[in-house]
Amino acid sequence: MYSPLPENLEIRESEIHGHGLFARVRIPTGTVLGVTHVEDERFTHGWIRTPLGGFYNHSNLPNCELVRDLSSSPERKVLKTARPVQEGQEITCRYTIWDIGELDGVDSTPARKLIDIYI
Questions:
Q1: pTM of the model
Q2: Can you give the pLDDT at residue 70?
Q3: Assigned CATH class of 9-118
């Protein structure tokens, strides 16, 4: 039977924002939790977000990272643990919503410097 999330994760209310993904068991470093995005030019920003990709929250001290899977076609992004995740801990990843490099006619250098300093 299809399940939108791996068995080791669940969705719960988050103290960070709205709802988030939480570990149901301890998850070791280097574990690929699943596909978060699939490349598709027909969609906004060129990606389809999976259920897994829709519920992890941002943290400046994340326990996971997004990894581009360049071997697949179409290209995919997967969520991988960057350190051990304890049972009950929220799954987090460092990300931004905006690509400041794509702003037309705007010098993004000052913003990039701020991002490098604070994130």
A1: 0.76
A2: 85
A3: mainly beta
